[in-house]
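One thing: can you check what follows?
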Amino acid sequence: MKTKISIFLFLFAFIISPKLFAQDADKFLGYWLTQDGDSQVKIFKAKDGKYYGDIKWLKTPNETDGSAKLDKNNSDEKLKKRPVLGLQILKSFEYNAKDKEWVDGTIYDPKNGKTYKCFIRFKEGDEKTLLVKGFIGFSLLGREVVWQKEEKLRE
């Protein structure tokens, strides 16, 4: 009898646990308003199983002359002419179930044209608030910003 229970528990853990972790991992999918309130990012899961985020809304999408804001601070000359709206700023995040964080990704800051290592987690006890930490080298030397969950794309 103990053997059957052990086998059942093993199979349950093996089959069900990954699905539970996937549910936790997908909790941060959707729209997020950045700390400064100037942009909204949509986080999605790609076919490769990793998480990415694109800028889907800008408070001020155009320059004063009416032209689209461009990625003018990018150090790569070929990329300076791409629009900021639609830009992918979060790349290649994986979920760490043990720490309940999205890790091993990068974040691009179009305001300064730099890319940083990054990890993301929910504020403790609050799944509508993301803590996004970008850093160079060690995470202790980085900067953390707060993003707020939004239900839909802003207009």
Notes: The first strand starts at residue 30 and ends at 33. The beta strands are 30-33, 39-45, 51-58, 88-96, 101-109, 114-123, 126-135, 143-150.
